[in-house]
C-alpha cells in the first residue's frame, strides 16, 4: 500500500498546474473536475455536492492549497482502496502539469521517458513542498542510470556539479532534473535508445517496484503444456504476460507468508525447474539456466521473508534508510553547530568579563596612584605643619602631636596595606579569568578532535563498504570458477559421448558385416531350394495338359502355372 505522501506528490503538481495566476489558489469549478478525476482513478464513489457543502462559507473566490487539503483528506484520501492504479494517477497529473512546464523540442529524450524521469523524481524527492531532490538522491539516481546503460560513472564531474549547487544553495526541482537528463549534461555520448532503456529499467525498479523480470517457461494447469511467458516479480505478487510489452496479462501469482519456493529435478524434458507453492495452487516454472533459476528462487524467497517480517520493498526500504541517515547527520551537525555557538558565546562572555576586569584593574591602579599622590601630598603638608607647630609650640605639646601623627600615619599605612591586598585579590581574579579562557580554548580543541574522530569513523565506514564490495567481487570470482568447473564437466561429458558414439558406430559396422554375411548365406540357401523346387515341380507337372510357354528359342521348360507356383514359393522363402 502506497503512503499518503507519495499519493499527494502528483496531486500537488496537478493543483499547481491549475493555479494559473501563481497565487496559491484555484477556482472551485476546476477543483470539481480535479476531484472527479481523482475519484475515478482512485475508484472512489464521487459525491458531487460534498465540495459545495465543504466550501459553503466561501462561495466567492478561489480555494487555496490549505483550504483544499481538508476536503482532499476527508472525502478522497481517507477512502482509498489498495486496488487502484498509481501509474494512471501519475499520468493524469502529468497530463495537467507537463505541457505548461516542458518544451520537448529541445530535449534529447522522448515524452514517455520524460514522464518516467518525473515519476522517479517524485519517488526520490523529499516530503516537503515545494518538492525538491537533494544531491545524495540525485547521485543515487544517476548511478543507477549509468549502471543500467552499462557506462562508467564520472565522479569528478558530479562533484563539480554538486559544488555548483552548494554555492547556489539550492536543490533541483522536477523540471530542472528533466532538463538535466534531457539535455545530456551527464549522458553525452550515450545513444538515445540506450538512455531510454536505462531510464525504463530505473523506472521499473523504483516506481513500479519490479524486483526482477524476464522470460521463463510456465506449465499450464489444465492442458499441462509449457508456454513461454514474461514474468515480473513484485513484493506481494508475481504477474506474467504474453510478452514484455505488458499488453496482455495472462495471470498473477499472489505471494503471502504461507507461500514457499522450492527447486525441482529435471523432468518431462525440462531443465532448471522450480515450483511456487501457494495455499490454493502451485506453479511449476522452468528457467533458462541454473544461474537464472537460482536468482529467481532467491528473489522470491526474499519477498516472502519480507512479507513475513512486515517490511516494504527493497528500494523503498533503502530510500527510508537514506533519509534516516541524512536526518541523523543533519541532527548531529545541528547539535555540533549549537555546541560551537554556545562555546563561542561563552568565550565572548568570558572575553568581555576579562576586558571589564582589565579595565577595572587599570581604573583601580589609577585610583591607587591618585590616592598615593594625595597621600604623599598630605604627608608633605603634615610634615610642613608639623615643623611649624614644632617651632611654635613647646616640646611636650610637640611630642604629643607627634605621637598623634604617628598613630595617624600607622592607620594610613594600614589602609595602604589593605588596598594592596585588594589589588592582589583583583589580580588573582584576573588570573582565574585567564585560566577560564584557556580552559575554553582546550574545550574547543577537544570539540575539534571529536569532529575529526567523527570524520575518521565515517572514513572507516567507507572502508567497510569497500570491503563489502571486495567480498562481492570475490563471490563473483567464485561463481566464475564454478562456471569454469561446469564447463570442464560438460567437455568431459562431450568427450565421453563422442567415445560412446564411436563405439556405437563400430558396433553398427559389425552388425552390417554380419547382416551381409547372413544375406549371402540366405541367397545360397534360396538358390538351392529354388533348384530343388523346380525339379520337383517338373516331375509333378510333367503329365499336365496345360499349354507350354513358347519362347524365342522354342518351347519353354515350364508352363505358366508352374511359373506362378514357383514364384509364390520363392517369395515365401525369400520372406
What does this protein structure show overall?
The structure is a single chain. The radius of gyration is 51 Å and the shape is elongated. It is 67% helix and 10% strand. It is an alpha+beta fold and 575 residues long. Strand 10 and strand 11 (554-559) form a beta hairpin. The SWAP complex consists of NPM1, NCL, PARP1 and SWAP70. One of its GO terms (cellular component) is lamellipodium. It is found in: Cell membrane; Cell projection, Lamellipodium; Cytoplasm; Nucleus. InterPro entries: EF-hand-dom_pair (IPR011992), EF-hand_SWAP70_N (IPR057836), PH-like_dom_sf (IPR011993), PH_domain (IPR001849), PH_SWAP70 (IPR057837).
Shape: elongated
Mean pLDDT: 83
H and E string: HEHHEHHHHHHHEEEEEEEHHHEEH
Low-pLDDT stretches are none
Count of helical stretches: 14
The protein's oligomeric status is single chain
Report the strand count: 11
Q: In whole angstroms, how far apart are the ends?
A: 80 Å
What composes the largest sheet? Answer: 7 strands, antiparallel
Structural class: alpha+beta
Strand content: 5-15%
Strand order of the largest sheet: 6-5-4-3-9-8-7
Radius of gyration using CA atoms only? 51 Å
Amino acid at each position: 500500500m502506497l503512503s499518503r505522501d507519495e499519493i499527494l506528490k502528483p496531486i500537488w503538481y496537478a493543483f499547481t498546474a491549475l493555479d494559473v495566476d501563481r497565487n496559491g489558489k484555484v477556482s472551485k469549478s476546476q477543483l470539481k473536475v480535479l476531484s472527479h478525476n481523482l475519484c475515478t482513478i482512485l475508484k472512489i464513489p464521487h459525491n458531487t455536492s460534498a465540495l459545495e457543502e465543504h466550501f459553503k462559507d466561501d462561495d466567492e473566490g478561489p480555494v487555496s492549497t490549505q483550504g483544499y487539503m481538508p476536503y482532499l483528506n476527508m472525502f478522497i484520501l481517507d477512502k482509498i482502496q489498495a486496488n487502484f492504479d498509481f501509474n494512471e494517477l501519475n499520468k493524469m497529473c502529468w497530463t495537467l502539469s507537463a505541457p505548461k512546464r516542458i518544451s520537448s523540442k529541445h530535449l534529447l529524450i522522448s515524452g514517455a521517458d520524460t514522464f518516467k524521469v518525473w515519476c522517479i523524481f517524485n519517488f526520490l524527492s523529499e516530503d516537503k513542498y515545494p518538492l525538491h531532490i537533494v544531491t545524495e538522491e540525485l547521485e543515487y539516481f544517476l548511478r543507477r542510470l549509468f549502471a543500467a546503460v552499462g557506462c562508467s560513472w564520472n565522479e569528478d564531474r558530479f562533484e563539480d556539479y554538486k559544488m555548483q549547487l552548494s554555492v547556489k544553495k539550492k536543490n533541483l526541482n522536477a523540471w530542472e532534473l528533466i532538463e538535466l537528463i534531457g539535455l545530456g549534461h551527464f549522458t553525452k555520448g550515450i545513444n538515445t535508445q540506450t538512455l531510454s532503456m536505462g531510464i525504463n529499467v530505473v523506472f521499473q525498479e523504483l516506481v513500479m517496484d519490479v524486483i526482477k523480470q524476464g522470460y521463463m517457461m510456465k506449465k499450464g494447469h489444465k492442458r499441462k503444456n509449457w508456454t513461454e511467458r514474461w514474468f515480473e516479480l513484485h513484493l506481494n505478487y508475481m504477474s506474467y504476460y504474453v510478452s514484455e510489452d505488458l499488453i496482455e496479462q495472462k495471470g498473477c501469482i499472489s505471494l503471502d507468508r504461507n507461500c514457499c519456493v522450492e527447486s525441482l529435478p529435471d523432468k518431462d524434458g525440462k531443465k532448471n525447474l522450480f515450483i511456487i507453492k501457494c495455499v490454493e495452487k502451485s506453479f511449476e516454472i522452468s528457467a533458462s539456466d541454473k544461474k537464472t533459476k537460482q536468482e529467481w528462487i532467491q528473489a522470491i524467497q526474499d519477498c516472502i521473508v519480507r512479507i513475513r517480517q512486515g517490511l516494504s520493498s527493497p528500494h523503498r526500504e533503502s530510500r527510508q534508510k537514506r533519509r534516516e541517515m541524512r536526518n541523523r547527520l543533519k541532527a548531529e551537525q545541528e547539535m555540533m553547530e549549537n555546541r560551537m555557538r554556545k562555546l563561542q558565546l561563552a568565550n565572548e562572555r568570558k572575553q568581555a568579563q576579562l576586558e571589564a576586569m582589565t579595565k577595572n584593574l587599570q581604573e583601580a591602579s589609577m585610583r591607587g596612584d591618585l590616592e598615593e599622590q594625595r597621600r604623599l601630598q598630605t604627608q608633605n603638608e603634615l610634615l610642613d605643619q608639623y615643623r611649624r607647630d614644632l617651632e611654635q609650640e613647646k616640646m611636650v605639646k610637640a611630642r604629643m602631636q607627634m605621637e598623634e601623627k604617628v598613630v595617624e600615619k600607622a592607620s594610613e599605612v594600614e589602609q595602604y596595606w589593605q588596598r594592596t591586598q585588594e589589588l592582589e585579590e583583583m589580580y588573582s581574579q584576573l588570573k582565574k579569568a585567564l585560566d577560564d579562557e584557556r580552559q575554553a580554548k582546550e574545550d574547543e580543541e577537544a570539540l575539534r578532535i571529536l569532529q575529526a574522530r567523527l570524520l575518521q569513523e565515517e572514513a572507516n565506514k567507507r572502508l567497510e563498504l569497500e570491503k563489502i564490495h571486495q567480498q562481492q567481487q570475490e563471490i563473483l570470482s567464485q561463481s566464475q570458477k564454478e562456471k569454469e568447473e561446469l564447463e570442464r564437466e560438460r567437455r568431459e561429458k562431450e568427450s565421453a559421448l563422442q567415445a560412446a558414439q564411436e563405439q556405437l558406430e563400430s558396433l553398427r559396422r559389425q552388425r552390417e558385416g554380419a547382416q551381409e554375411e547372413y544375406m549371402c548365406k540366405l541367397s545360397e540357401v534360396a538358390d538351392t531350394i529354388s533348384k530343388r523346387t523346380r525339379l520337383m515341380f517338373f516331375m509333378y507337372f510333367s503329365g499336365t495338359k496345360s499349354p507350354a510357354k513358347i519362347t524365342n528359342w522354342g518351347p519353354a521348360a515350364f508352363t505358366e502355372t508352374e511359373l506362378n507356383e514357383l514364384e509364390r514359393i520363392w517369395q515365401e522363402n525369400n520372406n
